[in-house]
Write a structure and sequence with these properties.
The protein has ten helices and no strands. It is mainly alpha-helical.
Length: 198
């Protein structure tokens, strides 16, 4: 019984550290936030962080994995039952809005991150690409959108989002880029692909 309680407490502490790190990374950056900063914000000793995450790289990768799981799950929930590309893109936007500050930092700092963290980011993009390619493939077969190579469809969409997020200080210095421009970006992209607006 004591072992089960201890394991539960350990899992709760690990989850708490990931939550705090997610917030700290969103506010201060993935490459500049120190484990000591996370320990302080979490109200634990610095050693506690290392008991759960032996290195900064392991912590960063764990946080990106958690973010990826949440975004993928949210995209799946939001896109469930949606067969159209526009619906999937709208669901992607909605899912990203919930984690915008962290995702913007991830986009900006990705190339500075350890290889394991970059690989995790690539897996997240692959998951999103899958949803988009499923919807786009169907619509291309039906002739409702232009027959683009899937990699161009995905990369054009993500490139548009990443450009606005990476330059958020110019586009929405006081708030959310995706709240301010999300619908406009979606409509612009939809116009490029030939998807009919709802």
């Amino acid at each position: 019984m004591a072992g089960t309680r201890r394991r539960t407490q350990k899992d709760q502490t690990r989850r708490h550290l990931i939550e705090v790190a997610l917030e700290q990374f969103a506010q201060e950056g993935l490459t500049t936030t120190r484990t000591a900063d996370i320990a302080n914000a979490a109200g634990v000793s610095h050693g506690t962080v290392f008991a759960h995450f032996p290195t900064q790289e392991v912590l960063v990768t764990a946080v990106i994995e958690e973010f990826g799981a949440r975004v993928s799950t949210r995209l799946h929930e939001l896109a469930a039952g949606s067969t159209g590309l526009r619906d999937v893109l709208a669901a992607h936007l909605q899912g990203l809005k919930e984690f915008e500050a962290f995702y913007a930092r991830l986009v900006i700092e990705r190339r500075l991150l350890p290889e394991s963290a970059q690989s995790t980011f690539t897996l997240i993009q692959s998951s999103i690409s899958f949803h988009i390619s499923q919807a786009a493939g169907k619509e291309m077969e039906e002739g409702t959108i232009h027959p683009w190579p899937i990699h161009l469809l995905f990369n054009t969409w993500v490139g548009l989002l990443h450009y606005y997020l990476a330059n958020g200080d110019l586009f929405a210095p006081e708030g959310s880029v995706l709240e301010r421009y999300g619908e406009e970006l979606l409509n612009h992209y939809v116009g490029l692909t030939g998807v009919k607006r709802c």
